[in-house]
Amino acid sequence: MKINNKIVRISLWLMLGVISLVAIFVVIVLNMDWNRAKPWLNERTSEALGRPFSIRGNLALSWEELHSGPETVTGWRGKIPWPHLLAQDIHIGLPPDIAGIAHLEKPVLASASDSGLIPAVNMAQINEVSFSLNPLALLEKKLDIPVLRFQDSSLFLQRYADGSNNWTFKKNTTSSPWRLELHRVVLSQGKVHYLDAIRHADISADIDSLNTDVDYGISWKLKGKLYGEAVTGSGKAGAILSLQNQTQPFPILAQLQMGQTKVSVEGSVTRPSELAAVNMQLKISGNSMARLYPLTGIVLPETPAYSTAGHLSATLGKIDNHWKYEKFTGKVGSSDLAGSLDYQTRKAGKLRPLLQGNMRSEVLQSIDLAPLVGADSNASKIQRGTAAVQPADKLLPVESFHTERWRSIDADVSLSAAKLIRQKVLPIHKLQTRLIMKDGVITMLPLSFELAGGQMQAHITLDGSGGDGNKVKSKEMVQDSNIAQAPAIRAKMQVTARHVQLQKFIPTLAASKLTVGEINADARLTAIGDSVAELLASSNGELSSVINHGSVSKLLLEEMGLNIGNVILTRLAGDKQVKLNCMLADFSITNGQMNARSFLIDTDEALIDITGSINLQKEDLNLTIKPNSKGLRILSLRAPLYVRGTFLHPLVTVDKTVMAMRAGGAIGLALLSPFAALLPLINTGPAQESGCGSLLKTAK
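Below the sequence we write its predicted structure tokens.
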């Protein structure tokens, strides 16, 4: 019994000793000046981060019981005081290997100090950091932090021209037995300044707390420049960023404007620490879809002013990202547009990003297609954010294509339009094309549509890959690309038109009760250039067309917009209807020079022979028109006409020295070039006797 009493007394003394030691430890900890530990803590943290770290303000430790707030702990564990750490005036510097670069590269707008932010020698400056630490988790070598709070912090992020940045921390090669579990982050009154030498960005953002908003906890505003364009934005987000349990979506509401491009989103992000998933409603509007390239890196064509709205979702991984813009609707100019787009980064396979999708339109306005090739007016170019480069004396568009962007992405997009119209109704229906862009080469497979009861089809290939034979237009560095040269385009085009009815092509002819025929045409061209004007100026190939059984008049040519033909016809026959038996046109094209191999117009009154050339490079006309009357009609005798001048300002004159005193019979067609190129077009005409067939027999 005495032994047992002795054991009890020893146990009590031991327990008393342990309690005394704990009490002494707690007293020491509570009364210890932790600021004396700052030099040791700064040194160890700097070594771990691989950059300067210092706590310049107060460092304090207190013990608190967690009964309320996001750190609430229930049960007996809630009775255990938790250590609560408070640190003030913290500075995190730059790694030594890039600290020198930061002083050499200047911001786009102003220095960090000029904008009220931290100087470039520091990456972060935090006025106050506080967090509580789970003491029981320390027994398992685990740093369990329920909430990490940042108050009044400034963050300076910079990416340099060589691709390095100041936010990548040193990786610890040795494994540690300790684990960090950080559940939530709370931001309050922060500033962020972002500089990017590659994207030419200088953007500042302010973050403030929202105490009365039920759905959102913080608000933010940003301003700056991106690729030389002014950028502004604002928005709201959740107050607490959950890092451990991320099943609850993190709400986001944002508006962004860059130049005339406006973007607004409302939705949520799942697992925001990893940006694992995005689920938002997205609205976009701007002066041209091409202006989205600096924001998205996606190559889109030049367009008129547009606006779209749809559902944006994304699955984001550490390597590859997959974005979907689904069920969007909108307007492009006066045309409607709807569909879905799918975008994948494909970095894992070292492939270019891929854009896929389907777009459709019920009514597509032809005027809205003009910006695709730079054929809109200079006023329209300025409105959509490009330079007014079109010369006043030139008709063919000179605006350059951005071929350097073609190699930044691959694409496979289909487009269909139920109807295409112009200012005056043009009966184009069921337009369809599939655009494939791969390795900088654009292919249309094919572009087809129904036109005035007939069919038109075009196979077009535009090679902007920069392969052998492509000339170089510039050696300037392009934005967001390592490509130093922008190659011109190697183009191939084959166009066919079959059974296009003139009466349906020009509906106003139906009221005149005239007999009108059909058009058949072929064109084959190859060219090199970086604009429509350059492509046509260097083009090689041929153009052939046939019109069977029609009527030609000033009215018809006005409806077709053929100003040159209007002037010519008025000179030849006055303003009256003339029955057209056939028109044959066959041009060879060499280095932009169109030479008339055969160009005949056969009417009831005369057989008109047109010779000469058209220079697509200089936009010059050099045609001679020789009307030869059928039968001896003194009043129908005509002198040759000369068509000179430019496409914009054609000039038609009469040869007063040579009168066409040819009586009876038709023109000597044997002097003309062969009609071999026109045979396929004539054979596709109506089954009845063709006026062009008769003309061909006469030629033979």
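The chain has twelve helices and 30 strands.
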